[in-house]
Amino acid sequence: NTGTDYVAQIITKDLGSVSGIVGQRMGSGTLFTGKFVLNVANPPASAQFGIPFTAKPKSFSAEIKYTAGTPYQDGKGNVLDKTDQADIYVILENREDPNAIKRIATGWYRTGTTTGVNLQNINVALTYGTLNATFPDYQKPGNGIYGNSNDKPTHIIVVFASSADGILYEGGVNSTLFVNNFELKY
């Protein structure tokens, strides 16, 4: 906090050996649109991403700073030869058919440790429609269903995560993401 300006600090934590027994030792810090409803039978499904939204932004921006923590561990606490990365993304979906959710637009930013002491500006364009082979697989919808730029979004997902593979209960101990001044641009 500097004056009246607040910055979000998002941290990945080692949840300890008891959590490691069930493969959930690493807890990625995550700030997202949606709600959290504990699903004991399927813990990764507890985060229900997205809120109603109908606009069509062209891009998003934010100020960020990221430090990848060490060691990088899996859900059992095994140290892996990987370096953590932060994930920041905006996804627009059409959920009119809950059995065939369409990805309308994707804006994704993944980064390792940033340099300097100050927050850095990022600007990320939203790609409407199908993501071609130049986009990494992690950015593509799991169900493979895309909409196009003429389709109306019904929901927006915004995610800031201190560990890109946090859904797998992996991450660097104390990986830290700072986020300020998130903005959708039209």
Salient structural properties:
186 residues; mainly beta; 16 strands; 1 helix; four-stranded antiparallel sheet; globular; 41% strand; single chain
Number of strands: 16
Rg calc: 17 Å
Q: Hey, roughly how much beta strand do the residues contain?
A: 35-45%
Helix coverage percent: under 10%
Enumerate the spans where pLDDT stays under 50 for 5 or more consecutive residues.
Answer: none
Mean pLDDT: 93
| Shape type | globular
Cα distance, first to last residue?
28 Å
- SSE string, helix = H, strand = E? EEHEEEEEEEEEEEEEE
Class by alpha and beta content:
mainly beta
Main sheet record? 6 strands, antiparallel
Count of alpha and pi helical runs: 1
